[in-house]
Write a structure and sequence with these properties.
Layout: E1 2-6, E2 9-11, E3 17-24, E4 32-38, E5 45-50, E6 58-59, E7 67-72, E8 77-82, E9 91-99, E10 102-105, E11 109-113
Parallel strand pairs: 2-11
Antiparallel strand pairs: 1-3, 3-8, 4-5, 4-9, 5-6, 7-8, 9-10, 9-11
Length: 115
């Protein structure tokens, strides 16, 4: 099983980034996919979640209206489009797959929002 995140980097406040998470080794369409983040000295928190097929996405209050989660089941990939980035969005962002008692994590990608 692998979850490989990409797309992180340094961006100025107000800028945008798009994170990708490529999944392999499991049946992607059977899993709920999520993005979490962890800032220095803070606990890991849920940012956004997308169900297997159809259904409603979930966002934390801090990113609602600015971030969009999506998935391409043909490419086994989940995305996080991040707009209007703020310094407080600075964190390591992790991809998560969950289903039937199985939980998988990616290695994380650093997002730094700074001028």
């Amino acid at each position: 099983v692998q979850l490989v995140e990409s797309g992180g980097g340094l961006v100025q406040p107000g800028g945008s980034l798009k994170l990708s998470c490529a999944a392999s080794g499991f049946t992607f369409t059977s899993y709920i996919m999520s993005w979490y983040r962890q800032a220095p000295g803070k606990e890991r928190e849920l940012v956004a979640q997308i169900p297997r097929i159809g259904g409603s996405t979930i966002y934390s209050d801090s990113v609602k209206g600015r971030f969009t989660i999506s998935r391409d089941n043909a490419k086994n990939t989940v995305y996080l489009q991040m707009n209007s980035l703020k310094p407080e969005d600075t964190a390591v962002y992790y991809c998560n797959a969950r289903a039937w008692g199985n939980v998988y994590w990616g290695q994380g990608t650093q997002v730094t929002v700074s001028s």
